[in-house]
Design a protein that fits this description.
heterodimer, A: alpha/beta, Rossmann fold, 2 domains, seven-stranded mixed sheet, five-stranded mixed sheet, globular, B: 371 residues, OB fold (Dihydrolipoamide Acetyltransferase, E2P), eight-stranded mixed sheet, 12 helices, 24% strand
C-alpha cells in the first residue's frame, strides 16, 4: 500500500525491510544508535539526522555505534563485506570520506578485479551530500564526481523518497560496493511510497517530464529545480524533457542520448563544482555520441569552483537555481 | 428523469484515487441539444483521458469549465437545462453552486479500499452500491481493481459491486500456491466467503474472464451470471502481450506494450506506465507473474480452456463483450461461447470497458438485471 512518507522514513524502511529479509545485513556508523558514552539513552538519536531511529530496538546487536574513526570502521565494513556480510556503513557527511579513500578506492573497488572475480564486496556506504543546510564548507559538498571516477564503485543519488527506498534496497542486494548519496535537504520531502519492498534497477534513468524542445539532465536535489525551471518555461511555450539520472555509476547513456537526439538542446545541471563534474561528463558523452543532432552548445549549470560559503546569502547564490537553469535552456535555444 | 429544471455537469470521479481532473476541451457548443449518453466534454486525469457523458436530456446552456484548467472532483463544469429556464436563473445557479468536499464524498461512499483476510491471503478490494444483486469485478493478468475506474461507480448505481485485486496483483498478497486458474478461482471464492457473498454476477476481464468461467464450471451455484470482457479461455490464440509485459524493465520498453491494450494509443499516460512499473518492481510480483504466465499462456498459446468446460444448458447466462481492435486476444473468440449474448465494439481494444465505458456499463447493468 502506497502512502506519503518522507525520504528519511523511506531510507529507514529500506534498512528495516532488508534487515528483516537478510540476517547478513547490519548497520554501522557514528551515533546511529544513540551516541556511545552518552547518558544511556539507547536509540535516542538514530544517527545525526535520525535516519536509523527505531532500528536498534528492532534488531538488537545489528546496529553498531562506532568510534569517531571513519578510516577504521569503513575498513571494517569493507572487510566484513568481503567475508560474506552485507554491511551498511553510515558515514554522516560524504565530505569526511577523505580519510578512508584507501579502504574505498584501493580495497573495496578493487577486490573483484584483483581477485579475478572470486571476491565480492557487497558494502553500502551511506552519506549525506549537498549544500543549503547552513553547514559550511566541510559538510556541504557534492562530491559525487570523485566516486564516479573510480571503476568498481557504484554511485547512487536519489531525488525523492520513492527512489530512495528502491535504490537503497537494490544497493544492499547488489554484490558491489555502492556509495549511496543522500541529499540532506531532501530528507523531509514526501512522496508516495509502497509499504512493500521493491528494488529499482541501477543504470535506469527516470524521465520525470517529457518535452520536445530541450533536455535537462540532472540528479539529486537539482531534479526539483529543473522541474521548476521546466514548468516556468512551459508557460512560455518551451517544453523541456527532464532526466533524473538516479544512478551516476552505472549511468543510463541510452536515455540521455535518445533524448538529446530528439531535442538537440542539452542542459546539464549539477550541484557539484564544474570541473570534472557529472555535468561535464554528460556533456562530453553527448557531444561524442550525437554531435550532429545538436542545435546549440551544451550548457552546464553547476555550483561555482569555490568552497561552499558559510554566509547564508552566498550559500543560496552558490546552489544552481531554477532561474539559472531556465536561462541556460534559453541560451542554448537562442542558437 | 430528474425533476430539477437545472442539471449540473460536474467533474466526474473516475476511480477511487481521482481527486481532480483537467478539462481538455468541449465537444459541444452552447445551446446544443443533449441526450443521455452524449459525450459533452473531454477530461484528462493523471491516469487516463475520457469523455464526460450526459445522464439527462436538455440543452447545454452554459460551459463553465475552461479548457486546460484543473478542477476538483464534483466541481461544476457546465449546466444543462430546458430552453425555457431564463438566463438569470442559470447565472444564479452557477454562482451559488458549492462543490462538495472530498471528505464528504468519502463519508458518503465509505472507505476507498478495504482488505479481506482470506484463506488465499490478504486481498484488497473496493465496494460500491447497495443493490440486491451482487457483482464481482475480476481484472486481468498484471491488472488491478483500479482498471474498473470507469465502471465501478456506474455499476454500483443498481447493484452491490465488489472489485478485488487478485493474489500477486495490485495491493493484495504477493503469493499464490500452484499458480493457475484453479488457485485464482479459489482466491475469488475465499474472498466471497470472507465478505459473506453466497453467489454473485461475475464480471471478468481477460484472465479474469477465464477465472469466472472456471468458477462457473466448477461451482455453478456461486455464479449468477457471467460477463466476459475480451476474455481468456475461449480459444487458443493470444498475442505477445504477456511475454513483453514480463520482459519490460523500464518505461521505454513498457510503453509500447501497454499501448497494445488500447485502440487509442494516446490513452497510455506517463502515470499509467509509471504505476505499472512500480507494481512490477514490488518484491514477489515478477516470479509470481512468470509462474502464472507459464501455467496459462506458455508459448503464446492459451493453455486452459474453461469455456469448453461450461456445461451446455446448465451454465449461467453469459454476456460476451469485445473490442474489435483487441491486439491481445482476437475478437473472433467472442463467437466461441454458444448461447451467449455478444457485443463487439469498433474503435476499442482490449480495454473496451475503459474505451467504451458507458456502452459497456449499460450492457452489464441490463445483463445483471435480466439474469
Amino acid at each position: 500500500m502506497a502512502r506519503k512518507i518522507s525520504m528519511r522514513q523511506a531510507i529507514n524502511e529500506a534498512l528495516d525491510q532488508e534487515m528483516a529479509r537478510d540476517p547478513s545485513v547490519f548497520v554501522m556508523g557514528e551515533d546511529i544508535v544513540g551516541g556511545a558514552g552518552g547518558m544511556g539513552e539507547i536509540d535516542a538519536w538514530g544517527g545525526v539526522l535520525g535516519v536509523t531511529k527505531g532500528l536498534n530496538a528492532k534488531y538488537p546487536g545489528r546496529l553498531l555505534d562506532t568510534p569517531l574513526s571513519e578510516s577504521a570502521y569503513i575498513g571494517a565494513a569493507v572487510g566484513a563485506a568481503a567475508c560474506g556480510m552485507r554491511p551498511v556503513a553510515e558515514l554522516m557527511f560524504l565530505d569526511f570520506m577523505g580519510v578512508c579513500f584507501d579502504q574505498i578506492f584501493n580495497q573495496a573497488a578493487k577486490f573483484r578485479y584483483m581477485f579475478g572475480g572470486k571476491a565480492e564486496t557487497p558494502v553500502v556506504i551511506r552519506a549525506m551530500v549537498g549544500a543549503g543546510f547552513r553547514a559550511a564548507a566541510q559538510h556541504s559538498q557534492m562530491l559525487t564526481p570523485l566516486f564516479v571516477h573510480i571503476p568498481g564503485l557504484k554511485v547512487v543519488c536519489p531525488s525523492n523518497a520513492y527512489d530512495a527506498k528502491g535504490l537503497l534496497i537494490q544497493s544492499i542486494r547488489d554484490n558491489d560496493p555502492v556509495i549511496f548519496c543522500e541529499h540532506k535537504n531532501l530528507y523531509g520531502a514526501e512522496a508516495d511510497v509502497p509499504a512493500e519492498s521493491y528494488a529499482i534497477p541501477f543504470g535506469e534513468a527516470n524521465v520525470v517530464r517529457d518535452g520536445k524542445h530541450a533536455t535537462i539532465v540532472t540528479y539529486g536535489m537539482m531534479v526539483q529545480r529543473a522541474m521548476d525551471a521546466a514548468a516556468a518555461l512551459a508557460k512560455q511555450g518551451v517544453e523541456c524533457e527532464v532526466i533524473d539520472l538516479r544512478t551516476l555509476s552505472p549511468i543510463d547513456w541510452d536515455t540521455v542520448i535518445d533524448s538529446a537526439e530528439r531535442t538537440g538542446h542539452v542542459i546539464c545541471v549539477d550541484e557539484a563544482h564544474p570541473r570534472c563534474s557529472i555535468a561535464a561528463d554528460v556533456s562530453a558523452m553527448v557531444t561524442q555520441e550525437c554531435f550532429k543532432a545538436l542545435k546549440g552548445p551544451i550548457q552546464m549549470v553547476t555550483a561555482p569552483h569555490t568552497p561552499v560559503p558559510f554566509s547564508p546569502v552566498l550559500e543560496d547564490l552558490y546552489i544552481p537555481s531554477a532561474e539559472a537553469i531556465a536561462k541556460a535552456v534559453k541560451k542554448s535555444m537562442a542558437h | 428523469m430528474s425533476d430539477q429544471r437545472i442539471v449540473p455537469i460536474v467533474m466526474p470521479k473516475w476511480g477511487l484515487s481521482m481527486k481532480e481532473g483537467k478539462v481538455t476541451g468541449w465537444l459541444l457548443e452552447d445551446g446544443s441539444r443533449i441526450n443521455p449518453g452524449d459525450a459533452i466534454l473531454e477530461v484528462e486525469t493523471d491516469k487516463i483521458a475520457g469523455a464526460v457523458e450526459a445522464h439527462e436530456s436538455g440543452v447545454l446552456r452554459r460551459r463553465v469549465g475552461e479548457p486546460d484548467t484543473v478542477y476538483p472532483v464534483k466541481s461544476l463544469l457546465g449546466v444543462i437545462a430546458d430552453p425555457s429556464v431564463p438566463e438569470e436563473e442559470i447565472d444564479a445557479y452557477v454562482s451559488s453552486f458549492v462543490t462538495p468536499s472530498a471528505d464528504e464524498d468519502e463519508a458518503e461512499q465509505g472507505p476507498k479500499y478495504e482488505y479481506a483476510e482470506t484463506s488465499s491471503g490478504k486481498l484488497r478490494y473496493a465496494k460500491r452500491g447497495s443493490g440486491d444483486e451482487t457483482a464481482i469485478l475480476i481484472h486481468g493478468f498484471g491488472g488491478d481493481l483500479d482498471n474498473w475506474l470507469f465502471n465501478i461507480d456506474a455499476l454500483g448505481e443498481s447493484a452491490t459491486v465488489y472489485a478485488l485485486d487478485l493474489p500477486g496483483h495490485g495491493q493484495s498478497a504477493k503469493s499464490l500456491d500452484k499458480p493457475g486458474l484453479g488457485a485464482l478461482a479459489d482466491a475469488v471464492a475465499s474472498f466471497m466467503t470472507t465478505v459473506g457473498i453466497d453467489s454473485a454476477h461475475l464480471v471478468g476481464h481477460s484472465m479474469g474472464g477465464a477465472i469466472a468461467m472456471h468458477m462457473a464450471a466448477s461451482d455453478p451455484g456461486k455464479v449468477d451470471s457471467l460477463t466476459l470482457i475480451c476474455s481468456a479461455g475461449l480459444g487458443r490464440e493470444i498475442g505477445s502481450y504477456v511475454d513483453s509485459y514480463l520482459a519490460a524493465q523500464g518505461r521505454k520498453d513498457l510503453k509500447p506494450v501497454l499501448e497494445q491494450l488500447f485502440a487509442d494509443k494516446s490513452l497510455v499516460s506517463r502515470q499509467l506506465v509509471d504505476d505499472v512499473l512500480k507494481y512490477k518492481r514490488l518484491d514477489g510480483v515478477e516470479p509470481l507473474l512468470k509462474d502464472l504466465a507459464a501455467a496459462l499462456f506458455a508459448g503464446q498459446t492459451q493453455q486452459d480452456q474453461p469455456g469448453a468446460r461450461l456445461a451446455a444448458g446448465k451454465a449461467p447466462p453469459a454476456l460476451v463483450i469485445w473490442g474489435k481492435q483487441d491486439e491481445i486476444i482476437p475478437h473472433s473468440h467472442a463467437q466461441n461461447l454458444p448461447g451467449a449474448k455478444v457485443a463487439v465494439f469498433d474503435g476499442a481494444g482490449h480495454m473496451v470497458f475503459m474505451e467504451k465505458a458507458s456502452d459497456v456499463n449499460a450492457l452489464i447493468k441490463a445483463h445483471i438485471a435480466g439474469s
